[in-house]
Design a protein that fits this description.
Elements: E1 10-11, H1 12-22, H2 27-38, E2 50-51, H3 65-68, H4 70-73, H5 94-104, H6 106-112, H7 114-132, E3 142-143, H8 146-149, H9 158-161, H10 188-203, E4 215-216, H11 218-237, H12 243-260, E5 261-262, E6 267-268, E7 271-272, E8 277-278, H13 297-308, H14 343-355, H15 359-375, E9 381-382, E10 389-390, H16 396-406
Antiparallel strand pairs: 1-2, 3-4, 4-7, 5-6, 7-8, 9-10
Organism: Streptomyces violarus
GO molecular function: Glc3Man9GlcNAc2 oligosaccharide glucosidase activity
Protein name: Mannosylglycerate hydrolase MGH1-like glycoside hydrolase domain-containing protein
Length: about 425
């Protein structure tokens, strides 16, 4: 669970990050985290973004299992019958997590057949994304709901969401406001649009391609590429050739640059597939491709300058990278993904900095993450200026990724991101 009160079920990308941290204190428990999540995988390959705990009351979280109706509405897509899930997905961090968990105790992993179990499931997951979600036809994956990208109410979604007619407020009850301040959560209008998108997707039997919302996101695709590199390492470990997956990761990196790089912004932008245009909002998502090992050096250097410039302020006005442009009209330092800093995105950027030879800046960001996690009570997210805690405290991935950064590593090695290429670059 990310949080016992606010998020009392199992979340997909949270579990991946949690396993990355748990591997340092219990590789077996980290393996179990991923085994449990993938046991709920659908037959079409998708890994659902929520696996519901049947002992939790329905009104503890919305949307609850009776909203998603996975075992009935998702039957044609191969939803499991013995466990209730959502029908959408989240960023594909799982292969990276599986490879790092293996490296924590290779003997235990081999004895338990961990990667042998993981590999076909992860390969099916990537196949689903690459074959069913290339809605723009350019080789990249599209998300069909803001919850899939993980940065739920980012201003990057405002333009494509504006085309969605919200569900009536009386048609649902938000449980999140029972545990979090309204000033720090998505608005009711946002939620109305989220509910409309999700219910329409459900009513289509979770078939992809027909919805109003389809966005190519740089972070989602960068994490898929990083996990393709990890799958290549897993394939090599299992005696299969990983070279084809590595080549695919390199092709996807080229597609990412071709479709989402915006030189004038100095970063990657989201593409609204339905409108056929880039979305002119600067979110932290557009910096995450820094974690890719074959990103051209000039683009990596530009991302570092943008990260440290006035739009994100790292090392100047902010200690951690905020989730959204400090100068953007929609910036809000306390409202979820519209400005606060998050530990998971900063963990990814710390690894990207280190991967591209920016060790001093990576060390400074690592120090900032550790200080902020401790001082905030391991908060879900924080004010990027003051580091004031926002959202839930004792948050799962904040604690887990703190464990990862605290773990003693050989000099020069990154936070795990570098493991996809076997070491530092530069």
């Amino acid at each position: 669970m990310p949080s016992r009160s606010l998020y009392p079920h199992q979340w997909s990308w949270d579990s991946a990050f949690i396993a990355i941290g748990l591997r340092h204190i219990s590789p077996l428990r980290a393996q179990t985290e991923l085994d449990t999540l993938l046991a709920a995988q659908w037959a079409d390959g998708r890994i659902p973004h929520i696996v519901f705990n049947p002992s939790v009351p329905l009104d503890a979280y919305f949307p609850s299992p009776d909203f998603w109706r996975s075992s009935t509405a998702g039957r044609a897509a191969g939803a499991p019958r013995t466990v209730q899930t959502s029908g959408i997905v989240q960023p594909p961090v799982h292969a990276l997590a599986a490879w790092l968990v293996h490296l924590a105790d290779p003997g235990l992993s081999r004895a338990r057949g961990f990667l042998t179990r993981m590999y076909p499931r992860l390969a099916a997951w990537h196949r689903y994304l690459l074959h069913r979600r290339d809605l723009g036809g350019g080789g990249l994956v599209s998300v069909v709901h803001p919850w899939e990208q993980g940065m739920d109410n980012s201003p990057c979604w405002d333009r494509p969401l504006s085309r969605v007619t919200p569900a009536p407020a009386r048609s649902f009850r938000r449980a999140d406001l029972d545990h979090g301040s309204p000033e720090g959560r998505p608005t009711d209008l946002d939620y109305g649009r989220y509910v409309r998108l999700a219910s329409d997707y459900r009513d289509r039997g979770y078939a992809d391609g027909a919805g109003e919302f389809a966005v190519e996101d740089p972070a989602f695709n960068a994490l898929l590429i990083a996990s393709e590199y990890a799958l290549a390492r897993i394939a090599d470990e299992l005696g299969a050739a990983g070279s084809a997956r590595q080549a695919r990761a390199e092709r996807l990196t080229a597609a990412l640059v071709e479709r989402l790089w915006e030189p004038a912004a100095g970063m990657f932008l989201c593409r609204d597939v339905r409108a056929g245009e880039l979305i002119p909002e600067r979110g932290v998502s557009g910096l995450i491709p820094l974690l890719l090992p074959t990103l051209p050096h000039d683009l990596a250097a530009t991302l570092v300058r943008t990260m440290r410039g006035p739009h994100f302020g790292l090392g100047g006005t902010t200690r951690l990278v905020p989730s959204y442009d400090l100068l953007g009209e929609a910036f809000d330092p306390h409202r979820y993904w519209r400005g606060p800093a998050w530990i998971n995105t900063n963990w990814l950027l710390e690894g990207g900095l280190r991967l591209h030879g920016e060790r001093g800046r990576a060390d400074a960001l690592r120090k900032g993450i550790l200080h902020t996690a401790d001082a905030s009570g391991f908060a879900e997210y924080v004010d990027p200026y003051t580091a004031q805690a926002c959202g839930a405290t004792g948050f799962g991935w904040t604690a887990a990724l703190t464990l990862d950064l605290l773990h003693d590593r050989p000099a020069g090695r990154g936070n795990g991101v570098t493991a996809i290429k076997g070491g530092d670059r530069g």
